[in-house]
Write a structure and sequence with these properties.
Length: 313
Amino acid sequence: MNHLKVWALLLLLCFGCGGRNKDSQKKQIAIVVSTLNNPWFVFLAESAAEKAQALGYTTKIFDSQNNTALETDHFENAIAAGFDAILFNPTDAEGSVVNATKAMEANIPVFCMDREINSRSAATSQILSDSYAACVQLGELFANDLERRGNYAEILGIVSDNNTWNRSKGFHSVVDNFPNLKMVAQQSADFDRNKAMEVMESILQGHPDIKGVFCGNDAMAMGAYQATVAAGKQDQIKIYGFDGAEDAVHAVADGRIQATAMQFPKVIAEKAAKFADAYFKGERTFRKKLPIAVDVVTQENINQYIAYGKKTK
C-alpha cells in the first residue's frame, strides 16, 4: 500500500511539473510577411520581432514570397505549431482572408500590418498606413510640379492589393481635375523594381514625351528612374514614389526623384506587437482598422527624415 502511495505521489508531482512548465513557457508570435525581397518589409518584420521579443515573447518570421499558397502553408504550420498570435502582412486582400479566418477560428488573434484584407471579422485588428490621404497630397504636388499640363504615366503595384488602389485613387482624386494633365499609360509592376524598369522602358518607347510618372512604391520609382537614365530622359521626367525606403530617401535628397510618401513601418510593427501583448493580458476590444498617418517627403523637408521614419532629436 505504501509502495502504491509513493508511485501515486510521484505521478502527481510529474503532472504538476508538466503543467507548470507549460504555463511558464513564453508565448510564441508568428510574423507572416508578404515578401522579404523588399527592404521595407524586412524592416517591418524585424521591427515587429524586436518589439515582441522586448515584451517577452518568442518570434518566428515567415516569408510568403508574394505567394498566397505559400502564405497558406505558413498559417497551417503556425496553427499546428501552437503559435499564440500572428502579426500579418497579407499577400492578397481577398485571397488572404481565408488564412486569417482559419487562425481566428483556432482562437489565434491576427493583427494585420500595412496591408489590408477584405474582411472586418477575419482579423482582430488591421493597422494600416493612410495611403489614400498621403496620395492626395502627392497628387497635389505632382500637379503643381507639372504645372497642371502634359502627358504622364502611372505604375501600379500588385493589382490584388488594396494599397495599390487606395494610392491610385488618392492620386487621381486630384490630378483628374486638370484636363490638361493626361495619363497616357497605366501599367502594373507588382511593387517590383526590375519589373518597373521594364515597364518604364516600354512606356518610354510608346510615349517618349511624358513629363512625370507616379509610382505605387519606392522600389518601382527607383526602377523607373533607372529606365529614364538609360533613355537619357532623367532631366525631363519627374518621378514620385511611396514608402520612405532608404534608396528613395537618398534619391529625393539629391534630386533624382521628386518625392516619396514616408510610411512608418516601425510604428505599425510595434503597435501590432503591443496589441498582441494586450490580447495575451486579456484585452479584447481593438479598433478593427487603425490608420497611421503618412508624410510627404520632398527636398524642402528631407532633412527631417531618414529611411523608414523621422529623425530623432
